[in-house]
Amino acid sequence: MEVAILLADGFEEIETAAVFDVLKRAGVGVFTAGIKPGSLSGSRGLSLTPDTCISSLAPANLDAVVIPGGYPGYVNLANTPEVLAMLRQMAAAGKPIASICAGPLVLEKAGVIKGRKVTCYPGMEDRLVSAVFSPGQVVVDGNIITSRGPGTAIEFALKLVKHWVSPEMADRVKKDMLA
Description:
By secondary structure, the chain is of the alpha/beta class. The protein has one domain: Class I glutamine amidotransferase (GATase) domain (Rossmann fold, 3-Layer(aba) Sandwich), CATH 3.40.50. The chain contains six helices and eleven strands. A hairpin with a 2-residue loop joins strand 10 (138-141) and strand 11.
């Protein structure tokens, strides 16, 4: 399985690192892809150099994508045409799309969550105009998995493993992490 975590300046560090780490522990081929070459700065100032650029990715070669939150990371992703096109192609193919915190607003802008149950960071619910807001910590609706924010990042990542790998692997990773 090949999973890309899409990043822009202002990405949320905990959400990015937790998802990357938990997916790696589960044996998933996960990598980061930035909207531009070179180093990106997280919402709390952590610098990270993505593995590749979003412009070099082909949605047909990906099994899933993850959109973290963070300000202004989610805004920067939502304003990147390649990101929106990729999300539309992934959704049209029925491929898994996951997003956390304010990241579901990127999914909203891409038009891939119409009528779907999603959650997001508290206070942003009214901006999910085409979706059906659900207050759960992690919400699964078919191929769309969303979560609330940094404090739910491990739970979110484990849910990705459960759905994308297996419930047994999610349990094993959870036990090994003492979660």
